[in-house]
Specification:
Blueprint lengths: L12 E6 L10 H13 L8 H10 L4 E6 L5 E6 L1
Antiparallel strand pairs: 1-3, 2-3
């Protein structure tokens, strides 16, 4: 089982704010272009989907998470510890 970082108390929230790619990878053109840019500028860079971010949160012990689209192209992913 992954170790939960102690910097965030139980019941606390981690908020990721970014140009997150939509899960179907079809509508957030800006996010997709940023992902291409990451591939060009770094060896293994990429942008991620909300589902990937939520999965990473679950892997480290967050009990709940959800994605919230904002004004294009940005979104939030919120993880509750």
């Amino acid at each position: 089982m992954p170790v939960m970082p102690q910097a965030l108390p139980y019941g606390g929230a981690l908020i990721v704010y970014d140009a997150i790619i939509d899960d179907s990878r079809t509508t957030n053109t800006f996010g997709l272009l940023m992902s291409v840019n990451m591939l060009i500028e770094t060896q293994a860079g990429f942008d991620y989907t909300a589902a990937e971010c939520r999965s990473w949160m679950a892997d480290v012990g967050f009990s709940d998470s959800y994605a919230e689209p904002l004004a294009a192209p940005d979104s939030l992913v919120v993880g509750i510890k």
